UniProtKB/TrEMBL annotation:
One of its GO terms (cellular component) is cytosolic large ribosomal subunit. InterPro entries: Ribosom_uL1_bac-type (IPR005878), Ribosomal_uL1 (IPR002143), Ribosomal_uL1-like (IPR023674), Ribosomal_uL1/biogenesis (IPR028364), Ribosomal_uL1_3-a/b-sand (IPR016095), Ribosomal_uL1_CS (IPR023673). Pfam families: Ribosomal_L1. Belongs to the universal ribosomal protein uL1 family. It comes from Litoreibacter meonggei. Keywords: Repressor, Ribonucleoprotein, Ribosomal protein, RNA-binding, rRNA-binding, Translation regulation, tRNA-binding. This is Large ribosomal subunit protein uL1. GO terms for biological process: regulation of translation; translation. GO terms for molecular function: rRNA binding; structural constituent of ribosome; tRNA binding. It comes from the Bacteria. The keyword Ribonucleoprotein applies.
Amino acid sequence: MAKYGKRTTAAREQFAGKRNVTVDEAVALVKNNAKAKFDETVEIAMNLGVDPRHADQMVRGVVALPNGTGKTMRVAVFARDAKAEEAKAAGADIVGAEDLMEVVQSGKIEFDRCIATPDMMPIVGRLGKVLGPRNLMPNPKVGTVTMDVKAAVEAAKGGEVQFKVEKAGVVHAGIGKASFSEAKLAENVRAFIDAVAKARPSGAKGSYMQKIVVSSTMGPSVTISVDNATGN
């Protein structure tokens, strides 16, 4: 049997018997037991009744969390001339074209979001094998292939979160920090769940949202009642 430290054991005791709780109860449990020496990230994971191997069951989207993520987002933009200047003025961390492509090809990826103007996609397309597995490939469906570079950069910097279902039918994301108030965390959780609900694909059959779990980086997880979460 695995042995746990005092902090982990105390946290597990707090979570014992807590299943299918409300969003507010889950947030309170996670926040109050996030006692690491750093500001833990509060994370959400959702099991969906989809098979993403089928195109009509793919789930992906973007949501602007009302209270941000608490994370400093590093943004790279593929653009030229006036659009490159627009990106820099909006706060982009890295801006370039062929030069940026070469940096990425070398394996140096120092950004969390990648945006591109449509004319840059022939260049960006060559980076699919590098950016794709990291979920960094610009895509017009989530607003990262756009001529409105300013809005895209500001959205990324302001706490916008992208989500995409994985092979096992799971969607997950960081939705705030343990230092956030319970009210702000609960608001972010509901916003994320609502966005995933609205992204239900046409091919999804039966129960779409099957399980919702919230946890902190170092803490145990707690299951939120699906009926309660979608009813808020």
